[in-house]
Amino acid sequence: MDKLKIENFNLKFDIKNKDLLVWNNEIIMSRTEEDYFKKMFIILEKLNLCANSILEIGFGLGISSNLIQKHLLPTKHHIVEIEANIFKDLLVFSQDKSGVVATLGDWRLTDLPEKEYDFIFHDAYDYGAISEYAKFSYDDHYLIFSKILKDDGVICHPHFGDGPVRDVPGFKTTIVERLKVSPITMWDQSICEDAAIVLRRKC
């Protein structure tokens, strides 16, 4: 696999519209997540987090990107998307948004500036072997995060279900709130009605 294919790729989706992304018989993202994300970002706004410089990993249907713009009001909103067709949607989104920087590629292989971001939102779909995902463990991701996150910055990611949230070395994990949400259709067609808002800070 050459470097170009590792850094980004162009997929033939089973379904791709404004409400649903399906590839390889798996749901990458659906509009059913919107209620959860709306609740999440309303609560995050009330926390008055510093969010001048934001990195968002994965654009999907643009749900979180729109909510970040509405509730967190970043000066710089850097969005990295690995899939070329979704990236085209990101470019359309970015046209009338000041401060949005769009990058096509695998965020793990992108040259991101050190100690740049106040807030990182990570909601990337695992495309499996074609993205060489196995080369990067969960902890590897946080080694990268620790380099690009400001010392007082925070990381946020979706947590579906009512189960425990795993700890990560070098970070303090906080469950801000557990939520009951409108039914979310998960990647495997199962339904989820419990979710949480999770923040991680360097320790």
From TrEMBL:
GO terms for molecular function: guanidinoacetate N-methyltransferase activity. Signal peptide: none annotated. GO terms for biological process: creatine biosynthetic process. Transmembrane segments: none annotated. GO terms for cellular component: cytoplasm. InterPro entries: RMT2/GAMT_Mtase (IPR051038), SAM-dependent_MTases_sf (IPR029063). This is Methyltransferase domain-containing protein. It comes from Acinetobacter bohemicus.
